[in-house]
Amino acid sequence: MHPSQSELLKLKNLGLASVNILHSIGIRSYDDLRRVGPVEAFISIRNRGINASRVMLYALQGALLDVHWNDLDPDLKQRLANEADRLLSAQNSD
Question: Which residues of 16-79 form beta strands (DSSP E)?
């Protein structure tokens, strides 16, 4: 197992499939995920043709906060979803 893979696997909400998806978009560490942010990472995942649901978006945020995605504040989830929807819509209108 690659060292960065084990680092990401230690984060809450991230299993091997999620880590492999993150690697496919160039995220190899906690610092990478923090720098990119959960919304941009989610958008990059979707742009690769991976049909990720909002749960993935919430899981990425939870991984950064060390919180299970289901325990995130509902207002935070809504803000994340709104931002992702806005960015996806902007891409689709181009």
Answer: none
3-state DSSP call for residue 30? helix
pTM: 0.91
Per-residue pLDDT tens for 14-44?
999 999 999 999 999 999 999 999 999 999 9
Q: How far is the C-alpha of 3 from the C-alpha of 91, rounded, in Å?
A: 34
Domains observed in the chain: 3-93 (1.10.150.20)
Q: How many CB atoms lie within 10 A of CB 90?
A: 9
Distance CA(86)–CA(50), nearest Å, equals 18
